[in-house]
């Protein structure tokens, strides 16, 4: 069986992450579990295991479908629109810290 493919890679850009943590959590004094970086604009948001779920909120607010894990040692991507996880060959790896 072939894994479904993301149809939104054309929306990935050469980005610079917006910071070392979730933008919204840092502003509100909140905490996160894991971080994701938007591959369209560089927004750093927290994952759905975090109270704020800011990466998903960013997708709903901005319609930017692609995030990459912003965790050390992780290089996977997620497409919110196609609901598929995948890896991109030769993609830059972003980690905070």
Secondary-structure blueprint:
Blueprint: H1 23-28, E1 35-38, E2 44-46, H2 54-62, E3 66-69, E4 76-79, E5 84-87
Antiparallel strand pairs: 1-2, 1-3, 3-4, 4-5
- The strands making up the biggest β-sheet line up spatially as 2-1-3-4-5
Cα-based radius of gyration, to the nearest Å:
13 Å
The major beta sheet can be summarized as: 5 strands, antiparallel
CATH architecture annotation: 2-Layer Sandwich
CATH homologous superfamily caption: Zinc/RING finger domain, C3HC4 (zinc finger)
Average pLDDT for all residues: 92
Low-confidence spans: none
Shape estimate:
globular
Task: Write structural notes for this entry.
- By secondary structure, this protein is an alpha+beta fold.
- It has a single domain, classed as Herpes Virus-1 (2-Layer Sandwich), CATH 3.30.40.
- It has 2 helices and 5 strands.
- The protein has a 5-stranded antiparallel sheet with strand order 2-1-3-4-5.
- The longest helix is centred in the middle third of the chain and has 9 residues.
- The radius of gyration is 13 Å and the shape is globular.
- It starts with 22 loop residues before the first helix and ends in a 10-residue tail after the last strand.
């Amino acid at each position: 069986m072939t894994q479904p493919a993301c149809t939104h890679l054309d929306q990935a850009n050469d980005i610079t992450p917006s910071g070392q943590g979730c933008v919204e959590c840092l502003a509100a004094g909140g905490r996160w579990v894991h971080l994701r970086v938007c591959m369209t604009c560089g927004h750093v948001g927290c994952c759905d295991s975090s109270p704020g779920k800011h990466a998903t909120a960013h997708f709903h607010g901005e319609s930017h479908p692609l995030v990459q894990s912003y965790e050390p040692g992780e290089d996977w991507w997620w497409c919110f629109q196609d609901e598929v996880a995948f890896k991109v060959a030769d993609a830059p790896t972003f980690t905070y810290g």
